[in-house]
Specification:
Radius of gyration: 17 Å
Number of helices: 0
Mean pLDDT: 89
Amino acid sequence: MAALVMAGAAGWAETVGDCNHPIEAPLRSRAALVIEASPSEVDIVGVDGETVRVSCTVNDSGYAQDVELRFSGSEGYGRLNVTSPMRNKNLRVRVEVPRKTNLRFHMGAGELRVDGVTGDKDVDLYAGQITITSPSDGAYRRVDASVDIGEVNAMAFGVDKGGFFRSFTRTTNDGEYQLRAHVMTGEIDLK
């Protein structure tokens, strides 16, 4: 069962669960959320409300309790760690956040999809694929996308580059947010 531990008058809390016990915690709109994940397939989805909800699945339900979902923070700042000792068990993680959330994400390898989240985004993968679908391409003041080996496909901005050390940068006076995405080996899709 998911555990909730409260600490201090500032409202700092920690919630721990696994694939059998999803977690939920308060996270207000425009909050910052830092996510570190073991190699997996991660979907971050913007939803109505002021809560972060995290769930996961694995191919073999016998490994479901081996995945740790740990959220700590307050309503204005959160940190989510998804850890798993297993490899190649097809770990799939779903993170629901308020539609306006500032994200910072790091994962060694895997696939990340961000859909319907407006806010700053700073995303890093060593190997894999990043797909970011934004509500509006005009929301970004600055966009930086780069791969060491692979492809940057920014259909929203009319860019498609593949090969070694490919990057795309766009700066405008309009827009409120910044987007930075980097993959050492793989693909970035901005839609």
